[in-house]
């Protein structure tokens, strides 16, 4: 069992480093369960969300929409590349409670969610967006949800900070800004 944990932890750390190469850790934090260390504050920024798959009405009219996950490889995906790590985000859906990566033709890869949505609007392929981002789009009803029951679920997002750090005006300003900008999603 210890071999499994060592290999799993190494893979998780390697994946994290790939996604966030500029992140430097200055202190070690052990976190187990839902307890915070004394003096830490957790403020919810976003409720849990899903990563949805969407097509434009023109794409759906011309190519149809997948009815099952097995239909996805016959369609085009607008890919997403992380700016910080330069890694392409694989398309992951949830089948039978398990996350499953799906290979699709990806003729266009974007590193900006707004450009990805614009490409989806123009019918260049199936795009993906977090549901809270899609709700902000004035033309959201023009997008056709694809395979909704297979969408990946993400947990709520929290801001963690030391209780007394908010006494610093700059830190307090950042906390207030983030809470204000995300209030509609809680």
From TrEMBL:
InterPro entries, per the entry: LysR-type_TF_proteobact-type, LysR_subst-bd
Gene3D superfamilies: 3.40.190.290
LysR substrate-binding domain residues: 33-181
Entry-linked Pfam families: LysR_substrate
Family stated for the protein in its record: Belongs to the LysR transcriptional regulatory family.
Designated name of the protein: LysR substrate-binding domain-containing protein
Lineage, top ranks: Bacteria, Pseudomonadati, Pseudomonadota, Betaproteobacteria, Neisseriales
């Amino acid at each position: 069992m210890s071999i499994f944990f060592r290999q799993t932890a190494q893979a998780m750390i390697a994946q994290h480093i790939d996604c966030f190469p500029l992140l430097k850790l200055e202190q070690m934090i052990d976190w187990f369960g839902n307890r915070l260390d004394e003096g830490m504050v957790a403020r919810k920024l976003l409720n849990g969300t899903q990563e949805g798959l969407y097509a434009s009405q023109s794409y759906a009219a011309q190519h149809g929409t997948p009815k099952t996950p097995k239909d996805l490889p016959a369609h085009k995906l607008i890919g997403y590349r992380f700016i910080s790590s330069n890694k392409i985000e694989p398309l992951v859906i949830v089948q039978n409670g398990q996350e499953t990566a799906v290979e699709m033709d990806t003729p266009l890869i974007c590193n900006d969610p707004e450009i990805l949505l614009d490409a989806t609007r123009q019918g260049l392929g199936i795009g993906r967006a977090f549901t809270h981002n899609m709700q902000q789009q004035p033309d959201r009803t023009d997008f056709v949800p694809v395979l909704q029951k297979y969408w990946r679920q993400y947990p709520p997002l929290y801001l963690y900070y030391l209780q007394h750090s908010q006494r610093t005006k700059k830190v307090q300003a950042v906390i207030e800004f983030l809470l204000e900008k995300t209030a509609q999603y809680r």
